[in-house]
Amino acid sequence: METRLNPTPLLLVLGLVAFGIAGLSVFDMFLPRPYAGVFLQTDAAQALVVAHVVPGSGADRAGIRRGDVIAGIAREAVRDVGHASQVINRHRIGDEVLYLVRKPGGLEETRVRLGRRKFGDGTYLYSSLLGFSFFFVGLFVLVRQPSLRASQVFFGLCTLFLLVLVCRMRPASFSGVDGPILGVGTVAFLFLPPAFLHFFLIFPRPAWLDAAAKPVPWRWLALGWRRAWPLLYLVPALLFLLTFWVTAATGGEVELVNGVPTSHWWLLAAYMVLGLGGLWVNARHLEDTRERRGAALVLAGSIFGLLPFLVFSVAFATFQYSQGFFFFAILPLVLVPVTFTYAIVRFQLLDIRVILRRSLLYTVTTAFVTGLYAGAIATFNAVFRGTSLATSGYFPIILALAIVLLFEPLRRRLQEPIDRFFFAGRSRLQRAMVELGEAVAGQADLETVVRELVEELPRLLDVGFAALYLARGGRLQREAGPESLPETLELPEAVRRHLGRHRRLLRTDQLAPLALSEPEVGDFLARLDAAGIEVLGDLRSRRRYLGLVMLAAKSGQMPLEPEELDLLRGLLDQAALALETSLLVEERTQKAELEREMEIAATIQARLLPDSLRFADGWQVAAVCRPARIVGGDFFAQLTSPAGEPTAVIFGDVSGKSVSGALMMMAAHEALHALALTHPLPGELFTLANRRVYALGRRNFVALGYFWAEGERLRYAIAGQPPPMVRRADGRVEELALPDHRIPVGALPDGRYDTLEARISPGDLVVGYSDGVTDARAPSGETFDTDRLREVIAASPADPDAVVANILEAVDVFTRGASQYDDLTLVAVGRSPVPPVESPA
Amino acid sequence: MIRRPRHLVLLAVVVVLAATAAAVGAVVFYLRGERAEWTSSSPAAVKELEAGLEDFRKLYHDDAFRHFARAAELDEEFAVPRVMMASMVGGERRERFLAELAALDLGRLTARERFLVDYYRAEIANDEAAAEALLADYLGEEPEDAWGMAERCQRAWRRQDWDFAEPCYEELIAAHPNWVGAQNNLGYIAMARGRFSEAEDHLRTYRFIAPDQANPYDSLGELLTLLGRYEEAEESLERALEIKPDFCASYVSLGRLYFYWNRPEDLRRVAADLAATEACQRYATTACRLDAYALALDGELDGARRQLADECLGGEVAIDVMAYRLALDRGDEELVRRLEAAFTTHLEKLAKQPMDHSFAEALRDHLHGVRALYQGRRREAVALLDSADRGLDYRGGDAAGLKLTNRLFLAFALRAAGDDTAAEAVLHKIAAVNPRYLESPFLVDMAQRAVSRGRP
Q1: What are phi and psi of A713, to 5 degrees?
Q2: Do A10 and B10 touch (CB under 8 A)?
Q3: Quick check: A79 and B173 CB within 8 A?
Q4: In whole angstroms, what separates CA A741 from the centre of its chain?
Q5: Crossing angle (nearest 10°) for helices B111-124 and B80-88
């Protein structure tokens, strides 16, 4: 794979070096060195020609004028600026030094008192400020978009402007660093034209490189440039050398303007015109309106900034042989960085968004108003100086009052339009967020809340899409969002904790460090990355975790700003409340529906239980079924023959509770009824029922008990139910014998069930029960158990109704109102006691 | 695998390169700074040598010699002062210095010392080829060395090869602008070539650099005399003598000024001062001639001729154009023959020397032209004087005014030949250089008499 070198670090290093050299140039101007007050022409190759004399300086007082040539200083003939600086620096500030000056009338000796070094003239001061402005704008762009080629070239261009404006335009000032600094400026000047052309061909993005875009004129030329750019970078240097070589060969003298031959200036003009043409083409073919407007603004600024530069620096210098208009050449250059900065702030050129802090603008405005007042006071003092008004004692009081009364209103009047100007976009977003938050907060409908969020957020934040996952059943389910996103998500615990701890939306790259310790986080982030997700944040209320919001990247290459994420966090907090409410409403509704259904089911189940039971003659029967929930799994039933004659009483306990238990109970109930019509014997009945129930599913089974009587014999079968108890007439309680095989019906594919018989005397009572009786729990956790059941049965009369009632009462007393643990079923049968024989007497 | 950020690598590379460059620079700077210029164990001797060289550059040869002698005394192993002294004297003293030099260990000399010793030894031995080769070799290795560059220019100066000397000196002052000898000689070359403003700049620069020296004032005085700025010239020359009362050349210059200025008394006084100055004994003949010129200015032409013939030009006759014209004017054929014979001998000597002979030939044409004019051969006189005008220049010394005097005679010859227009043009040329030259009655009368005497 081809590895492309990222030039940004190198550019930054070179930029810092350039900044250091430019800083040295300016710093050197402030050093307290002896100084005559003379600035020399930088283009005079062999002579120290005076370009400017600082008014009031020693040179000025000594009569040195512009155009004079300094031939000697302090008894030394000087050959160049460096030599002159050495000679001057041997003296002190205040020394009087003899100068040899060539004037139109010949050489003259004049005494010059050396003063303190003063900063260069106004042109250089302006030039330096302009150069540093270029540099800082370029640095800002590179730092914000380090990988963008246009920002890299722009930084290079701004650095070259810095060196040209600060180093090349430096007035030679008798300093040892003059030579190297001017040399650096000259070298920078050689690379300025190609860098200019390069930048404007690719700024803000090269229209001709986009094959899908509209056709661009001279596309072949622009594409050719991509291959030939090293040559274009070399052309100025080659022309520079060629100019000197040809001039030397022909015995002429190179005509220099600010350190470079006029030929180079013309080349610069040609490159600039080409560059502006490239920018014009780019600006016209950009798809994005905002970008197009920004590029057009930069184009206008560049034309108005560079045209005077070319006219005064190139045309005037060449045809009028005058560099006297140089200040007017560089004056409008400020339009270039200013319009560029404005275009970034206003139109986010190069996808750079500038967040201006209100506090900063407030400070600037306050400083401005303070300066305004200071200026007003100074003006007032100057105007009324010497008048009685100025000397009056009331004057400062009136002034102070005026300031107190006017300061804040004026500041506010200035602040408001500034805020409106700079924060219009942010205010709109904030307002929209608030409106969306209010709209969402008023909703209790989950679908509406989700739709509002997922549909509105992309529009407000200019992101590709939004998605919402809600926590359901321990997983995150996609509630809304593109189909390309997974239906469900397993949110790694580390990510959940991280999001919960930070309580804000995070970009996926901010979560990347978690992947170092948690590999599953890496997989998770890779999935998000593949889906185009850039930002995610959790939704949680105080009570529960609700889900996750995900946002795609913004259009263009801009990341979501922290302030946007903060606004979004506030909105999501509101949305979380709304979501929780709507989820609760949804759950409550579902629960109510379920309860209603359960009631219906309970009613149906209750109707399945016979109102009354019939048993064999001479026998009494009583039964009760109390489900633990609304619907239960226990039942008892009256089996009948096809003729409708009762044939048995059965009681059952199905596996499962609630709805599933009820359904199972109904299935078993109907199966037993149906089978009992043709197979009244319990063994056979249970065997066939076993097959039916087993076919419903492996885990479904029914514990059954079967009672019927013939004469004094009780015929019974037990499949999974506890052993019935017999209370003999004498009060003894014993268990009925159990069959060898008593597995619940449906537990195994093949079951064999035996029919047993027991002799039941008059006054005896048989109690069959489900394990819900013995498993009933007291609040302490203790179970009712068979011993208590035995005691209750023993203490009860030989009446089935009474024993059932007693057992229920005893269970209720034992559980003391605690919710019932399991369904509870009791069936009691007994032979009626023999009526007492009345004595004949 | 942890990836090291690339920009850190780049930054490290830049830092390492910068540190290496700084270290190399420091070492080079240290080594260059440590290199000794003069091989001597005595700092005092080195100080004396440097003072002597400085005086040598200022043309204060006596002072320079004293410093060299002191340096040699302080360090018996010091070679350079000895070779410098040998180059400044002759006879036995030179031999003694050369013998001392030969006894020294010359193997440990620096490159510059080696050059100076070898070069001056070749010069002393009149081995021009060896001197040229040594100079070329040395400048090949040290092209910016001031002494080497100055010697190369000086050789051209001595050959009167202005075409070579002028750019050579310009190159020297571009590298060493305070090399005063170069400023002086450039001033004279510019003066010789009629670029008087440029000459004045050089000489004023020279004066600016060395205001404590007499020579720049003297050189400037010569130039100002040529240009007819007599008051400035007088001030400058008197300043030279004020700085160095035994600066003999300035007496001569001052005498020349008073001659052109037509101030015989001052000229006589200067001649007396020159004769009375002990250090100027070798100028005794010159003092005598100046005194004779004063007589001539007073109108005592015969007295002046006699003094010149009998007192001033006795023994080895000097080339004296003024005396030659006086001899012709007064009809002293004997003196004319003596002076022509002396001039012929001088030309024969010059012919053997590797130098430009055009000036000498022009001088010869002038002498013959003046004689032709006195003898009534006006056409021939015009041709010879015109030829002399083309060959003469405004070089310093007596020659400075010769071109103007030649033009004066040319103008009168033209006029006598009937070409008044050409004569006026020549007179305008004279006035353009020195507007006060034609105010000198002595020279104008002499030219007039030459035409009158030579009337065919």
Answers
A1: -100, 135
A2: yes
A3: yes
A4: 67
A5: 20
Closest partner residue to A8 among B7, B183, B209, by Cβ?
B7
- Interchain contact B17–A (C-beta under 8 A): no
B199 touches chain A (CB under 8 A): no
Cα separation, A303 vs A296, whole angstroms? 10
pLDDT tens sequence across A79-124: 887 788 888 888 988 999 999 999 988 899 999 999 887 656 677 8
- B177 and A13 within 8 Å at the Cβ level: the answer is no
Residue numbers in A near B173 (CB within 8 A): 77, 79
Q: How far, in whole angstroms, is CA A483 from its chain's centroid?
A: 21
CA angle A747, A748, A751 (to 5 degrees): 110
Cβ within 8 Å, pair A102-B6? no
Q: Rounded to two decimals, what is the model's pTM?
A: 0.53
Q: What is the pLDDT of residues B375-384, one digit of tens each?
A: 999 999 999 9
Contact A207, A227 (CB under 8 A): no
Q: Which residues, including other chains, have CB under 8 Å from residue A134's CB and lie 6 or more apart? A: A158, A161, A162, A165, A336, A337
Residues of A in contact with B175 (CB under 8 A): 79
pLDDT at A480: 87
Backbone phi, psi, residue A157, to 5°: -65, -45
pLDDT tens-place string over residues A730-770: 888 999 888 888 888 888 888 788 888 888 888 889 999 99
pLDDT band, very low/low/confident/very high, at A277 (cuts 50, 70, 90): confident
pLDDT surpassing 60 at residue A8: yes
Cα–Cα dist A153/A131, whole Å: 16
Judge whether A626 and A824 are in contact, CB under 8 Å: yes
The chain A residues in contact with chain B (CB within 8 A) are: 5-6, 8-10, 12-13, 46, 71-72, 75-79, 83, 98, 100, 102, 106-107, 109
pLDDT tens profile A312-346 = 777 766 665 555 566 777 888 888 888 887 787 76
Backbone phi, then psi, for A486, in 5-degree steps? -65, 150
Judging contacts by C-beta atoms under 8 Å, the chain A residues touching residue B6 are 5-6, 9
Residue with tokens 């001595």: B158
Q: Residues A702, A703, A706, CA angle at the centre, nearest 5°? A: 115
A295/A304 Cα distance (integer angstroms):
14
- List the beta bridge partners of residue A48: A70
Answer yes or no: is pLDDT of B239 > 60: yes
Instruction: Reduce the secondary structure of A343-397 to three states and give it as a string.
Output: HHHHHCHHHCCCCCCHHHHHHHHHHHHHHHHHHHHHHHHHHHCCCHHHHCCHHHH
Residues of B within 8 A of A6 (CB-CB) are 6-7
Decide if pLDDT at A697 tops 60. Answer: yes
The answer to whether the beta carbons of residues A761 and A729 sit under 8 Å apart is yes
Classify residue A319 by its DSSP letter: I
Residue B178 touches chain A, beta carbons under 8 Å: yes
